[in-house]
Amino acid sequence: MIICAQGREGMATQTGRRLSRWSRWLVAALLVATVGGGAGFAAPAAGSGLGPAVEQWRQLAAGDSYNCAVRADASLWCWGANGQGQLGNDAPTFDPQAAPVQVEPGSQWRSVRPGKGTHTCGIRTDGSLWCWGSNWAGQVGDGTQTSRYAPVAVGVGFSWLVMATGNSHTCAIRDDATLWCWGQNHVGQLGDGTQTDRLTPVQIGVGESWVEVSAGWGHTCARRVDATMWCWGLGARVGDGTNAQRLSPVQIGAGFGWTQVTTGYDHTCAIRADATLWCWGYPGSALGDGTGESRLSPVQVAGGGAWATVEPGYWHTCGLRTDASLWCWGANIRGEVGDGTYSSQLSPVPVAADQTWAQLGGGLDHNCAVRSDSTVWCWGSNDGGAIGQRPRVGERNVPTRALLL
Asked: What is the pLDDT of residue 392?
């Protein structure tokens, strides 16, 4: 399983184009997670209709009380909250869905990213970029402020590799390694040097080559091909040691090579080339350094270990280590840490320690993950059916098999 960028998007071959020199950099920068099997731990509810492990999920990502995933056949499915059409099923009503609904049957998808608000974007296997959902600030990117309840094409005529969806802004990288952002920009989260909302993509960091981007609530972070990390936007989330607002990219963690950066709502975590994990921002409990204090610059997550991927949520964070074990920490009001309690954890604790995991998606106050047998398990808040359980309320404080196809 190849894991890349915000939401660990699966990499696919570029259609009709040769792999350029920078693309080989990108491939080298991706994290490859190989995992083994494991036993069950939270059995499906009686009468759920769940049979053997038949789901084959290529890529999974979690957003604000909803999730989307691409199956092995390249079909796209979403479930959970749907108040702004973020599930993309073009339904006449915006009913939440505890079980997946297919997005544009017949279309073929490579990757998807639910937002930290109520919009979603995905990249099809032909490299085209599509977005849908809330569009009040232009976050869909089609040149309007009209919400879209089914996918609309963005940046037509170009091939796209990865994308990131924040609260009300979006960023994406083309196959020429250029970075483009659009949507809300009131705190400089687009990085174009202004605070002007953009209804269509604008280029960021002209002249630079980018391999990864991740969008938070009011900030954005990205990596260049030289493994340097850059962030911009609102205050402490940026990580440059100040509370200053940054309207264009500033370098973070200079002197180190970074293999992944992922933004939460108000905090960010990143993995160095030595597989150590570092976080900054607030609240302090989500940073995992054992102190509970907010940080203006990167601080190492406690407990050591070699990390493969990380997914910050709202007030919590989860990550996978290179041994395919799952760890979470932070606020635990809705059981989002997944350790069987509702107690906050200031440093990483193991989750379902007898299992191995292949993918991870971190949402607002829930998480979903793909186990090594390709089944999907979720925990935390079930508002809107986010963790795939009926009724669409309550929560689970341990991973529970989702009601998927």
From this structure: 81
Q: What is the mean pLDDT of the chain?
A: 88
Looking at residues 134-152, what average pLDDT do you find? 98
The Cα 250–Cα 271 span in angstroms is 18
The C-alpha atoms of residue 211 and residue 313 are separated, in whole angstroms, by: 22
Residue (of 390, 389, 312) closest to 398 by Cα position:
389
pLDDT at 91: 81
3-state SS class at 355: coil
Q: Please state which of the four CATH numbers 1.10.10.10, 2.130.10.30, 3.90.1150.10, 2.30.30.140 is assigned to the domain occupying 2-35+47-257+360-401.
A: 2.130.10.30
Say what the pTM is. 0.87
Specify the DSSP class assigned to residue 23: H
Residues 6+ apart with CB under 8 A from 217: 116, 166, 167, 234, 237, 265, 266
Measure the CA–CA gap between 405 and 403, rounded to whole angstroms. Answer: 7
- Alpha carbons 169 and 163: distance in angstroms, whole number: 11
Per the structure block, which two tokens stand in for 146?
């009209």
Can you give the residue ranges of every domain in the chain? 2-35+47-257+360-401
Q: Which residues of 230-241 are buried (b: 16+ CB within 10 A; e: fewer)?
A: bbbbbbbbbbbe
Phi, psi (degrees; rounded to nearest 5) at 25: -60, -45
- Alpha-carbon span 404 to 123, nearest angstrom: 22
CA angle 99, 126, 80 (to 5 degrees): 15
Q: What is the CB neighbour count within 10 angstroms for residue 354?
A: 10
DSSP code string of 164-200: EE-SSEEEEEETTS-EEEEE--TTSTT-SSS---EEE
Are the C-beta atoms of residues 111 and 129 closer than 8 Å to each other? no
Q: What is the DSSP letter of 286?
A: G
